[in-house]
Design brief:
The chain is an alpha+beta fold. It has 24 helices and 32 strands. Bound molecules: zinc ion.
Amino acid sequence: MNFKRLTASLAALTLAASFAHAAEPFEDKFRQLDELLPTPTDTRTASGAPGHAYWQQRADYKIRARLDEANRAVSGVETVTYHNNSPDTLNYLWVQLDQNMFRADSDNRNISSYPSREAWRGAGAGGQGGAQAGLQYEAARFLVESRKFDGGFKIASVTGLDAKPLRYVINKTMMRIDLDQPLKPGSRFSFNMAWSFNVPETNVLGRRMGFERFVDEKTKQDKNDLFEIAQFYPRMAAYYDAHGWQNKQYLGDGEFTLEFGDYDVEITVPSDHIVAATGELQNEGEVLTSAQRERLKQARSATRPVIIASQADAEAREKGRATTTRTWRFKARNVRDFAWATSRKFIWDAQGFKKGGTEVLAMSFYPKEGNPLWEKYSTQAIIHTIDQYNKYSFDYPYPVAISVNGPVGGMEYPMISFNGGRPTRDKKTGELTWSRSTKYGLISVIIHEVGHNYFPMIVNSDERQWTWMDEGINSFMQFLAETAWEENYPARRGEARNIVDYMKSRNQQPIMTNSESITNRGSNAYAKPATALNVLRETVLGRELFDFAFRTYAERWKFKRPTPADFFRTMEDASGTDLDWFWRGWFYTTDAVDVSVDGISEYTIGTKDPEVEKKWKKSLKDREPVSITDQRNKGTLPRRVDAHPELKDFYNEHDDFTVTNKDRNKYNETMEGLEDWEKALLKEGKHLYLVDFSNKGGLVTPLILEITLASGKKYVERVPAEVWRYNPKKITKLIITDEPMTSLVQDPYLETADIDTSDNAWPRKVTPSRLELFKSQRPQDDMMKDYQEKLKAKEAKKDSKEAVKDAEQSIEAGRRVQ
Ligand SMILES: [Zn+2]
């Protein structure tokens, strides 16, 4: 390097350094969300309420469906009556064909990918399209099987009520029906469709629906299936003010948004099956025995679940195979969808629940493999959910609420939900056991899926756009319900401290990410929004303001379709609090809370009284450490003045801290010149502390300061997030105490999701941890061995935290629990 160059780079360095200082732009974390939220309209107001011109479409259905058990297929005919309540004339209608996701050539199959080779070879998580189960073999098997399976709707006909064919075009998971006459505002149109599809096997290909194969332990032969049937008929796509026709294809992750309507559904199944479905059974006399009908009547006023069809009944039915069929008829009013389940294996219990405006029959349907867990917990968990959710939103309005145990890990439809979770039978002893995580996982999944009746089955948000609006809000409500089940309930999502690992992680996405683009569904769309709402409730607004605002949102938007802006605006409008900073930080960025207590300096008010001040100064001097020279001289170095006392005078008896008469006179003069308030302040003897905080995570947060005084007294000061308004990175806060402060802890109850608490305390605290000895493992190249070891490891840690994490991973990937 020659001289010239060196000067040049030095100059560049200096410049860069000065720019780094000058170019630090001020970021207003409290600026309004104007550029992010849509402009309010007559249909959606600036207060977050539906506007005076709010409208939504309506679709009524009459469906006749038939299960072909031998071929595992469903066929049906339906009449749709579509009400155009919009102010627009429609030339065509869009219909959702969600079964087409199961076609071998579907986009769901074709866009399946992994973030990296390691992701596939290692944990396997992150595989899209349902191939996430954590093991490569399962992923590969999924892809191979999905290419073989003849899935998707076969549309036999689309006709007007006059039986004349209607022109239609299928675009992957959607179908456009062209209307001969444009559909004018305020008018309606009825038409018929006939269709069929093969039911996917849930454990291999299915997602949210499908069948489960039960294998007889001894004969190893297929004996019976359990069918969970949903997204089974062509459904009207949503058409609404904010987005027009819903035009996002069903790629697999984004669920759906549909129109409300009335359903009249007939389901034909083998005559030894029991059917559970959305709505009320219309023909009990034709499908139930008189004993079953009598037990159902008793169940309505029972104080614990009543068995309608017992395990002995189910075991007897399982042995045969009916050759005749039976048709079950259900009606449901004002629902956005319809689903059902059927099997000859079903045990059935029920219990009524009445409170406020709610009058519901809670029912559970499960195979014997679910017992004894299911008969003990399922129906009780349904009632618990409704009781708790009613407290925070609105009274459950439907006549039934159902939990079905089958192959689907967790999925919700109006009035009915599919839930996984069973005990395991020891192969040798035949003993039934379950882990702690199985028990609480079951209660939690039932709370979650039954809870979805409120969000999004009634508060009808657009799931295909925003997973957080139903999953996040519902996970938050689930947390509230879980805490009311028992003390120390192992709730996984909601507590601020539980989101810290995620908020520390790399490659996060903001909560405001489209449903289909989310890589880490469990953390991003369930846990983080649930936690944010809990922080909003406990730390930012307080319970009273939050609960009123949240209930206002639920009441305003029940049986309507809210967008994110309607939620954000209602929460501010009804709590009287500008929360734009909160939505901006928690929902639109991946910033985290990370506050550091950088330093504290103490100030006391000078009394000016020489008796006090000189004593204080002396105490400071006395506190100074003894110098190393003085320490070593002590007792070892004879001093001249000790040998010659005549050398001592006045100054050997009095140091700088001796109060003189001159001092006293000066003080008295000063005091005479003081105003009364000045004298009072001097007397109080307050302690002042300047505390420096820095915001390392970017997310602005309220400060919760636990202050400990010299006497041991402790108290908490809560400082609103606006303390960061002038500078979101660094602030100094003045704290005044009555006695000396001995310690200060920011966020003592871990309620803000601070991702690094090692710098939250002054003085700093030692973080306790254990050093573990472990054998290091060489990387495994043997795929088969790796697979088996993982399986074994999975078994071994059933009850540990890792098992919970595993479950979370599968939930995050979205196939098991929705
Ligand atoms: Zn869910």
